Amino acid sequence: MSEETSEEMVQEVAEDKSREKTRQLSTFYLESHFFGVPVGEVQEVIRYLGSTWVPLVSEVVRGVINLRGQIVTAIELRRCLGMPERAAGQLPMNVVIRTGDGAVSLLVDEIGDVLDVEPEIMERPPETLQGPMREMVRGVYKLAGALLLELDIQRAIADIGKESAQAASA
């Protein structure tokens, strides 16, 4: 094996290892906040679908949507995070997340890109984040020109399930 070939192989292995160390986050916006969730948890991203109201559920549940025959709970992520309501006439987008109990749709303002981030640069949420948003943000990535907040989707969904159960038993 030539010296050049072995150097190329070492470089390829180093590049493969560096790719293994990065995480991919599917990003979206709520107001001026830039959020991300792990790509592996995202089933699909789709335009707004009208929802059907469901009684006795948490106020963060907008209703259910019919996604090609699958009934999916639509969560108003702004309400989960304690943010003001979306402007009248501004339709949300759906980020459909896979969970152990089936799919859930997160209603967001705008869809971003899939970004590669390095887990070691993730920092704790800043003290300026308050209330529900602080509890649901897993960590923060300082990117060039942006602050990316990684949401802990499983925690948000677990909290919604508890609220809905309490409302149903009341």
What is the fold's blueprint, element by element?
Layout: H1 3-21, E1 23-30, E2 33-38, E3 42-46, E4 61-67, E5 70-76, H2 77-80, E6 93-99, E7 102-108, E8 110-117, H3 131-136, E9 137-143, E10 146-151, H4 153-169
Plain-language structure description:
The chain has a single domain, classed as CheA-289, Domain 4 (OB fold (Dihydrolipoamide Acetyltransferase, E2P)), CATH 2.40.50. Helix content is 27%, strand content 40%. The chain has helices spanning 3-21, 77-80, 131-136, 153-169; strands at 23-30, 33-38, 42-46, 61-67, 70-76, 93-99, 102-108, 110-117, 137-143, 146-151. It has a five-stranded mixed β-sheet with strand order 8-1-2-10-9. Strands 3-6-7-5-4 form a five-stranded mixed β-sheet. The longest helix has 19 residues, at 3-21. The N and C termini lie far apart (74 Å). The model is unreliable at 163-170 (pLDDT under 50).
Please give a quick description of this structure.
With 170 residues, the chain is α+β, with helices and mostly antiparallel strands. 27% of the residues lie in helices and 40% in strands. The protein has one domain (24-169): CheA-289, Domain 4 (OB fold (Dihydrolipoamide Acetyltransferase, E2P), Beta Barrel), CATH 2.40.50.180.
Principal-axes geometry comes out as globular
CATH class assignment: Mainly Beta
Unreliable spans are 163-170
Q: What's the total number of strands?
A: 10
Strand order of the largest sheet: 8-1-2-10-9
Kindly identify the CATH topology.
OB fold (Dihydrolipoamide Acetyltransferase, E2P)
Going by CATH, the homologous superfamily would be: CheA-289, Domain 4
